[in-house]
Amino acid sequence: MKHYLQFKDFDATEYAYLFERVALIKAKFKAYEKYQPLTDRTLAMIFEKASTRTRVSFEAGMYQMGGSVVHLTTGDSQLGRAEPIEDSARVISRMTDLVMIRTFEQSKLEAFAAHSRVPVINGLTNEYHPCQILADIFTFIEHRGDIKGKTVAWIGDGNNMAHTWLQAADILGFKVHVAAPSGYRIDPQVGAVNNPNCWQAFDDPHAACAGADLVTTDVWTSMGYEAENDARLKAFDGWRVTQSMMQQAKPDALFMHCLPAHRGEEVDADVIDGPQSVVWDEAENRMHAQKALMEYLLLGRLA
Ligand code: CP
Ligand code: NVA
Predict the structure, then answer these.
(1) Is the pLDDT of residue 25 over 80?
(2) Which of 192, 207, 243, 301 is 20 to 30 A from 110, comparing alpha carbons?
(3) What predicted TM-score, i.e. pTM, was given to this entire model?
């Protein structure tokens, strides 16, 4: 049994297989071709933080594959009344086939997985957001081909997304330029990459964008860090992705943002709504990517 708790849980061969499956599953969806390999399987989704994309993509994806979902939140389950995560894992995993969790500390997700009888998927933690990067890299491949050897510029907070980009660069052989203000830089121990050359820190976001094939950013205040919002607004002054930053990147560079976005804060409207932006494909691909992921975790390799 495999879990998907962080990006480095799979190797490059598994990702090559998964990206092929995502393309195939997406093509079936676009052709209105029924594909229901997960009939009678149930996915439990546990949300301790808000979500739009993650919920809709997992829920719609599971129904499309013939399965069903159970949606739990902290507020409407015993999780919010201090039932131990280990006990919740034992119970939920006896009744369902697969669990997706969005929570705070990665250690909480790991504790759940350690006591689960079924595969567990990280739907975002403070440290990582692997399902998003799975979709982002598939989106890059769709638009530009293989990401190997390419350069991704990460502008902004050294957060869960940034750490996951580092792991992806390490496994798939590309480079990440990270520009974050002092106090908000990435923690290499959280990224935990084997190849230290897969990323480089920059003090200047314009310099980080130079020669990039993809420029990407995220909110300045992630879920769970709202108390720091005022301090963050000040610290990130100058880190908004602008057209002038995009002009430092390659002429055919893409722009991505995992969403939700704040126009005029971490990104200018003319960038996110401009011709280089692929944010809507990126959001849609969450569903196709996670359908392939659920298929792989439940059925293994099919081809
Ligand atoms: N990108 C992402 O995970 O969006 P949600 O918070 O809406 O799920
Ligand atoms: N870094 C953001 C991503 C939201 C999808 C957060 O954790 O809130």
Answers:
(1) yes
(2) 301
(3) 0.98
